[in-house]
Specification:
The protein is of the alpha/beta class and about 950 residues long. The strands form 7 sheets. It has a 9-stranded mixed β-sheet, with helices on both faces. About 35% of the residues lie in helices and about 15% in strands. The protein folds into 4 domains: about 200 residues, Rossmann fold; about 170 residues, no CATH class; about 300 residues, Cytosolic phospholipase A2 catalytic domain; about 140 residues, no CATH class. The two termini are about 40 Å apart. The protein has 30 helices and 33 strands.
């Protein structure tokens, strides 16, 4: 059904008196009709009046058929048909300044976005602000038809009222044309007289308008078209002149950017009684180098320590600003304007801690000169990322020796998260910017260092995928139980290494050592079990003689330990020789993990292989161990010794303060991926101790109470009860009942404990369920494009993808459950889950689907259902469809931090061409009600 609404903006009032502004998305519909909107640049003329205004519209733009009946509103919008195919089409908006508020309504033929005013209650102020802070800044020419007003004074009063609410620091000023008729009451009005009238009200009209002119229409003795021909020529002339001025100033927005700015301005106007700023709005929602100049300060300290020349320092900082300020799809604001508005003051503050005022002025001037030079290259067609990589290579002579674990030297905007083989550290955003996707994978990137020959292969969580996490309790030698569970889970999914199925891992005490083995060294669980048993036998040997017993007792009295710490330290050095936060050869950087520890005063600490970019901005009762000097970075064996009850420096057993590290895993996962929900939460125990009944020995009861406090089992029950319902179904607590109490240093019962895990029917059921959840969490939804609105429904074209080796995942699913499987929503089936949707060219999985909802904020859940009745959700669900739009940047027209992942693998078959859609999923009305989520 064709939409006949031409209304652009509406101000509505509901029965309670609440006022809102409605964006009818009229501009978006016009953009869809343009032949090349990304490379077309609008001019906008705004007509204000009533009867005379309407007559002018019909005759100035006769090809637009203004006499046709359309659904009009407070402010209407059209495009001049004669300019549609030109580089600068002319938009025509018109308003009735005397129209009051209307009642709200819902259209079925187009999308309406309603924004409630949170600051304004006076109707006059709302009207003035909409004109002065929303419509006028986007208009090249304002035409006021004076004959539609009661008198000259009323025109002046209206303009004065507008000036009282306009932005005095408005970046762009529109032109004002007062249109009067030859025979009307204002036919003798002169420009100077009108300006004096405006000045008499105490306002300078020059603050709001670049020019103010009086235009007299020709006499009525001419035909209508001839009478308005001069006005038509004047409109074209002034709007074209204004566009040239805007282009010189860097405000020549494409239609895509013009629409995005206007949408943002509508929301800003509804929520804030503050001026709208184009540069600030283009950067909204994107982390910037300007947010934390501490990275620039640390880079400067490094450079000064290496006697780096100021010219090279300035060139590199300018290059980092360039890649930060101009991502792909960003509008090109002049570099000097960007520097002044965003960076200059913060740069001066960052440099002032190490440099004199004269040196600061020199470096800032060099930064400005370099940015202007880079800007010329961008205008010639090069991207900021290409220029930045080139600059890094040219400056490698100076900066290749630099090493820091607290600032990413690829961007100076974030802390690093991983290390290349050369020792340089890099953040995940720069991995996506600089890396190339590995063929056959949706999550694996290969990165080469721009300073030298370092390499890195890293697995990154897809933006719309959920988080898989695992936590491992402490328990001394009973750590064989978690390893047995992990082996059973991995055996249930052949060809899919466990460490590739986990995004975050946390461990306390012996659980921390297991985390090091499985997720740091990336051992198979079977190898981890063998090495763990070998370590336990070497560390926990019982004294064989009276002399050794006395020696052990003296060791306990002197150093708080029954066992020889040097022996444990030697073993850990053999097993984990590298630094914890560093590149580890022959591994693929993937799982983020943490080992727990405690320190003086029972303070809580974690050792991790990631950084603490926002630790200081939250109220956590623990902190991450990280040092500024890379030469003092903690070794993996030191972290293992600290978490496993053998004091190192001021740190010791993390089980004392993190007996159940699942809470830590969930908290840290939310911190690292704040927008993602948990897919799978696996908590591994070390055996449930049998309770002693009716023991009257107070010391024994006290001891058992203390040990119960250290036992992760009781804490995990509390954690599970506290989980939200949609997470609780994805929580797996894997533990086994012990027949007899086992000491933390007991060696003789370890094989029996491992066998108990393997033969338990409950263990087999639980590990199979956990394996199924992990396998299905590899499938996630990715939107192909922005939604289409039709007849009151939103249609989302999307693809179900697989984040790891899709053939191995589907094969493991078939091994675990041989019966057929299909993707379903609450309203229907989407098609079979099988190898038919693996691309023969790029070997990646892609199943195209269409999701239909009544509103983008409706929740949807995609699950996999099997013939045996088992149904479990895929990654990232339940979720709103609007969340997917936000995560994939479909609403952001000014680029993303990762520059749209230029190294993403483009398949000529499954990426550049649409695949046949197997089935359409339609969300029913039940989506508006409270969701019934399947797991």
């Amino acid at each position: 059904m064709a939409c006949k609404h031409i209304s652009w903006l509406e101000v509505v009032e509901d029965s309670s008196g609440e006022r809102s502004i409605v964006n009818t998305t009229r501009l978006d519909r016009i953009i869809q009709e343009l032949p090349n909107s990304p490379n077309q640049y609008p001019r906008l003329v705004h007509f204000i009046g009533t009867k005379n205004k309407d007559q002018a519209l019909r005759n100035v733009f006769p090809n637009n058929n203004f006499g046709r009946k359309y659904e009009k509103g407070d402010t209407n919008l059209r495009v001049d048909n004669t300019t549609i195919n030109t580089p600068t089409p002319l938009l025509i908006s018109d308003s009735n300044p005397f129209r009051g508020f209307t009642a709200s309504s819902r259209a079925q033929c187009h999308v309406n976005h309603t924004h409630t005013f949170t600051w304004a209650t006076d109707s006059a102020s709302i009207s003035d602000v909409i004109f002065t802070r929303l419509l006028f800044p986007f208009s090249d020419l304002i035409c006021i038809f004076a004959d539609d007003f009661a008198s000259l004074e009323s025109v002046a009063l209206r303009i004065s009222s507008w000036m009282s609410s306009h932005n005095p620091r408005q970046e762009m000023k529109s032109q004002l044309l007062i249109v009067v008729s030859e025979t009307g009451p204002l036919d003798s009005l002169r420009d100077e007289d009108f300006r004096l009238m405006l000045h008499s009200n105490g306002r300078d009209p020059g603050e709001m308008f670049s020019t103010i002119k009086i235009f007299r229409l020709a006499g009525e003795y001419l035909s209508p078209l001839a009478r308005y021909q001069r006005l038509k020529d004047r409109v074209y002339e002034l709007t074209s002149r204004r566009y040239i001025t805007r282009k010189e100033m860097g405000y020549d927005f494409s239609f895509i950017h013009f629409s995005a700015f206007f949408d943002s301005a509508i929301l800003h106007t509804a929520e804030n009684n503050t001026p709208f700023n184009f540069i600030a709005m283009s950067r909204l929602g994107r982390q910037s180098m300007a947010d934390d100049m501490g990275h620039v300060r640390r880079f400067l300290e490094l450079a000064l320590g290496f006697d780096g020349p100021y010219e090279a320092i300035a060139l590199f900082i300018a290059s980092c600003i360039l890649v930060d300020a101009y991502p792909r799809r960003m509008h090109y604001f002049p570099p000097r304007t960007i520097l002044d508005f965003v960076y200059r003051d913060k740069l001066i503050a960052a440099l002032s801690s190490n440099l004199t005022a004269g040196c600061i002025r020199f470096i800032i001037s060099q930064i400005e000169t370099n940015l202007i030079k880079f800007g010329d290259e961008i205008k010639s067609g090069k991207t900021s990322l290409e220029l930045h990589i080139r600059n890094m290579k040219e400056l490698a002579y100076f900066f290749a020796p630099y090493r820091t674990n607290t600032s990413c030297l690829f961007c100076l905007a974030r802390p690093p998260e991983r290390h290349l083989s050369c020792g340089h550290a890099i953040c995940d955003i720069c991995i996506r910017r600089n890396g190339k996707e590995v063929v056959g994978r949706q999550d694996r990137y290969l990165v080469s260092c721009s300073f030298d020959n370092g390499k890195l292969t890293a697995d990154l969580k897809p933006k719309t995928a959920g988080v898989r996490m695992i936590s491992i309790d402490g328990g001394g030698t009973r750590g064989v139980a978690p390893l047995a569970f992990m082996k059973m889970v991995e055996d249930s999914m052949p060809g899919c290494p466990l460490h590739e199925q986990i995004d975050y891992a946390a461990g306390s005490s012996s659980g921390g050592l297991i985390v090091l083995g499985i997720f740091y060294k990336q051992w198979k669980p079977q190898k981890g079990k063998q090495l763990f048993l070998s370590m336990a036998e070497r560390c926990f040997q019982r004294p064989k003689s009276a002399y050794e017993c006395v020696q052990s007792t003296l060791r306990w009295l002197i150093s708080d330990g029954f066992y020889d710490e040097s022996k444990l330290e030697s073993i850990l050095q053999e097993m984990f020789p590298g630094r914890l936060f560093d590149h580890l050869p022959d591994t693929i950087s993937g799982t983020r993990f943490a080992l727990t520890a405690t320190s003086t005063g029972n303070s809580r600490w974690i050792f991790g292989n990631y950084n603490a970019g926002i630790f200081k901005s939250r109220n956590a009762d623990y902190d991450l161990v990280r040092v500024d000097n890379v030469q003092e970075e903690v070794y993996a064996w030191e972290a293992g010794r600290a978490t496993s009850a053998a004091p190192v420096g001021t740190y010791w057993d993390g089980g004392l303060v993190f007996p159940d590290p699942v809470k830590l895993a969930m908290f840290e996962s939310e911190r690292l991926w704040p927008e993602s929900i948990p897919d799978v939460v696996i908590s591994l125990g070390t055996g449930i101790q049998p309770k002693t009944k009716n023991d009257r020995n107070s010391l024994r009861r006290l001891w058992e109470g203390f040990m119960d406090m250290l036992d992760g089992q009781s804490h995990s029950r509390d954690t599970e009860k506290a989980l939200e319902r949609y997470i609780r179904g994805s929580f797996f607590r894997l533990n086994t009942m012990l027949q007899l109490p086992i000491r933390l240093d007991n060696l003789k019962d370890l094989e029996e404990l491992s066998r108990t895990v393997h033969i338990s029917p409950k263990s087999r059921r639980d590990t199979a369920s956990a394996a199924l959840a992990l396998l299905l969490s590899n499938f996630y939804l990715s939107l192909d494009r922005s939604p289409r609105f039709e007849l009151g429904l939103y249609y989302y074209s999307a693809s179900i993808r697989c984040r790891t080796d899709c053939k191995a995942i589907i094969s493991a699913l078939t091994h675990l459950y041989p019966m057929p499987k299909k993707f379903v929503t609450e309203s229907g089936a989407l098609g079979e889950l099988c190898c038919d949707d693996i691309c023969e060219s790029c070997y990646r999985y892609r199943k195209q689907v269409t999701i239909v909802v009544r509103h983008p904020d409706d929740y949807v859940t995609i699950s996999v259902k099997m013939d045996n009745g088992i149904e479990r959700k895929i990654s990232g669900f339940p979720q709103r469809m609007s969340w997917f739009q936000k995560q994939e940047g479909l609403n952001n027209k000014f680029g993303s931090e990762d520059h749209d992942i230029p190294g993403a693998f483009q398949c000529s078959i499954c990426d550049l061409h649409s695949l046949p859609q197997k089935r359409i999923a339609c969300a029913s009305d039940a989506l508006h009600q409270k969701k019934r989520v399947r797991y």
